[in-house]
Amino acid sequence: MIEVKDLMFKYPKAKEKTLKELNFKIDKGEIFGFLGPSGAGKSTTQKILIGILKDYLGSVKILGKEIINWNTDFYEKIGVSFELPNLYHKLTALENLDFVKSFYSGKKEDSKKLLEMVGLEKNADVKVSKYSKGMKMRLNFVRAFIHNPDIVFFDEPTSGLDPLNAKNIKNIIMEKKHQGKTIFLTTHNMTVADELCDRVAFIVDGEIKLIDSPKKLKIEHGKRNIKVEYIDKNKFQEKDFALKGIGYNDEYIKLLREKEIKTIHTQEATLEDIFVQTTGRKLL
Amino acid sequence: MIRTLKSIKGDIFLQFKYGFYLVYTIVTIMYIFLLNFLPEEALIVIVPFIIFSDPSVLGFFFISGLVLLEKGEGVLEYLIITPLQVKEYIISKLVSLTFLSLITSIIIEFFSFGKNINYPIFLVGITLTSFLFILIGFIAVSRFPTINKYLLSSVGYIIVLCLPLIGYFGIFKSRLFYLFPTQASLLLISGAFKGIDTWQLIYSILYLLVWIAATFKIANISFYKYIILKKGDN
Ligand SMILES: Nc1ncnc2c1ncn2[C@@H]1O[C@H](COP(=O)(O)OP(=O)(O)O)[C@@H](O)[C@H]1O
Ligand SMILES: [Mg+2]
User: Fold this and answer.
1) Residue A46 CA: which ligand 1 atom is closest?
2) Fewest CB within 10 angstroms: A192, B46, B51, B136, which?
3) b vs e for B44-67, b when ≥16 Cβ sit within 10 Å of the residue's Cβ?
C-alpha cells in the first residue's frame, strides 16, 4: 500500500535535513503508527505521504505509484484528518461535510451516518462556531471517511478528547481496519499506539530508530520480572524475581508456600519505557 | 469540469453564509442612493466610475477576505488534500465573485443611469475587470501571512492599478496609461455608456485577456509557493 525508500527531505530554509533516509512499508489493512517527540519529523513525513510536499529525495510509492506521478485522483483514495480541526465555522456540521463531499466522484458515505458514528447527530444542524473543541475534533476526524478512502491518515486522532470519546474514536479506527482500510497514524501518545497499531516506527531527529509490533517489542524489551505482593508480619510487602528459571528459584517457591500472596504480575515494559530505552529520548 | 461547477455552487453558498451578499446589497443600495443626488450631466462620468470600482475594489478585497478566512479557519489546508485542483479552486472563486459583481453592476446601472447602454460591452468589461482584480487580489493575499501586512500592501496595489483614473477624470492625459490593464477596464465600461472606438475595443479586450492569463498563472504559482509550502510552518 505504502512503500517508502531512502526518503530524504530538507525544507528550503533549513540548514539540516529534516528527514534522513526513511525506509518503511505498510501493508493493506494495517495500522501503522509513527511515534516520536515533537519536532521529530512526523508531520513532515505525513505531508510528503499525502502529496503536499513534493521536493523530496528517494521514493514514496502509494498504491503502487510514485506519489509525484499521481494526479488528483490520488485524493479520491486517501483521507486525512489533521491535528488541528479545519472546518468552516459559519457552516453547520452537515453543511461542512456536504461541502467537501461534492468534490469527490466515487461512492460516498452518508453524512448523517458519519455524524452518528461520533455522536454528533443531535448537533448536525448547529454551526461549528458553537462547537466545543472536542466536538470539532470528532467532526474533523470523521470527515476523513466521507469518500470511503482506501488509506486514511490521522495526526494525533485522540488528542483533546475525553476518555469516552477517545475510546469511541479508537473503536472506529479498529472497525475501519477490519473493513480493510490501511491506516497511518501519527502520535506522541504511547497508549494510543500500543492499543491500536499493528506496527510502530520510532522516529527521532528525522531518523527511524526501529520498526516493530508493540507486542513483540514489549516481549523483547520487557524487564522479564515477576512482582509478588504478599502479607508478612501483618504488613504489605513486595518482591521482584527474574522470570528466567523461575521454576527453580527456591526463594520464590518458598515465598509462595509460606506467605499469604496478594498478587503476582509479570512486569512488562510500557511502550514508553522501550522508546526511552532504544532512542535515549523522551516523548514530549 | 463537474468538480469546478460543484465548487462554484459551494462558493456561492459559502459567500452567502459568510454575509458577502448582505454586504454587497448594502453597498449597492448606498451607491444607488448617493447617485440619485447627482445631476444628470455628471452621471455619464460618475456611473461608469462607480461600476468600475465595484468589480475591481470589491473583487480585490472580497477575494482577500475569502482567502484569509479559509486560511484562518484552516480549511485551505484541507482543500489541498481533496481532489479539487488549485486551478479549479481559483476559477471557482473567479466565477462566484464575478457573478456577484455582474448582478450588482446591472442593478446599479439600472437604478442610476437607467438608459439604454451597450450591454455586451458592459458585461464583458465588468467580467474581465472582475477577473483581473480577483487574480491580483489573490496573488497579493497569498503572500502575506497576516491581515495587517496584507492591508498595508493592498493600498499600494490599489493605488497603482487605479492610476488611469487620473486620465479618466481628465486631470492629466497620457498615452502611458494604456500600459495599465485598468485603462482597458475603464475604456470598456465607460465605452458601454458613451461609445468606444474599434481599436480601443480590441486593445481593451486583448490587453485584459493577456493580463488575466498572466495573473492566473502567477496566482497558481503563488498558491503553491506561499500557501501550500508555507503550511509546513509550525
Ligand atoms: N516549513 C518549515 N520550514 C522549515 N522547517 C520546518 C518547517 N516545518 C517544520 N520544520 C522543522 O522540521 C522539523 C520537523 O517538524 P515536524 O515534521 O513538524 O515534526 P513533528 O510533527 O514530529 O513534531 C522541526 O525541526 C521543525 O522545526
Ligand atoms: Mg506534528
Assistant:
1) 17
2) B46
3) eebbbebbbbbbbbbbbbbbbbbb
pLDDT for A284 equals 67
Residue B159 or residue A283, greater confidence: B159
Q: How far is CA A59 from the centre of its chain?
A: 23
User: What ipTM was reported for this prediction?
Assistant: 0.85
What would the grid cell of residue A107 be? 461512492
- Whether residue A96 has pLDDT greater than 60: yes
In a domain, B234, yes or no: no
Give the side-chain half-sphere CA count within 13 A for A113: 8
Measured between alpha carbons, how far is B31 from B33 in angstroms, rounded to an integer? 5
Q: Is the predicted pLDDT of residue B4 greater than 80, yes or no?
A: yes
Distance CA A180, CA A178 (A): 5
Name the strand (E) or helix (H) holding B79: helix B75-80
Ligand 2 centre distance from Cα of residue A272 (Å): 18
Residue B230: band (very low, low, confident or very high) from pLDDT cuts 50, 70, 90 = low
Which protein residues have their CB within 5 A of the ion that is ligand 2? A 43
In a domain? residue B68: yes
Distance CA A195, CA A259 (A): 36
State how far the Cα of A204 lies from the Cα of B39, in Å rounded to an integer: 74
Distance CA(A118)–CA(A163), nearest Å, equals 13
Q: CB distance from A105 to chain B under 8 Å? A: yes
- The verdict on residue B106 lying in a domain is yes
Lookup: cell for A106: 466515487
Best residue of A54, A100, A108, A127 to probe chain B, by most B CBs closer than 10 Å: A100
DSSP helix/strand/coil, B36? coil
| Domain membership of residue B10 as a residue range | 2-228
Q: Mind telling me how many Å the CA of B20 is from chain A's nearest CA?
A: 12
Helix/strand/coil for A83 = coil
H or E element at residue A263: strand A260-267
Nearest to B7 among A50, A103, A105 (CB): A103
User: In degrees rounded to 5, what are phi and psi of residue A7?
Assistant: -75, 125
How far is CA B69 from each of CA A82, A89, B44, B145, rounded to the nearest angstrom? 18, 10, 37, 12
Closest CA to A100 of A61, A149, A56, A163: A149
C-alpha A51/C-alpha A54 separation (Å) is: 6
Q: How many domains does chain B have?
A: 1
pLDDT (average), residues A21-45: 93
Q: How many CB atoms neighbour CB A203 within 10 A?
A: 25
Residue A104 neighbours by CB under 8 Å, 6+ apart: A76, A146, A147, B82, B83
Are residues A10 and A17 in contact, defined by beta-carbon separation less than 8 angstroms? yes
Return the H-helix or E-strand segment holding A62. strand A57-62
> Is there a contact between B74 and A99 if contact means CB atoms under 8 Å apart?
no
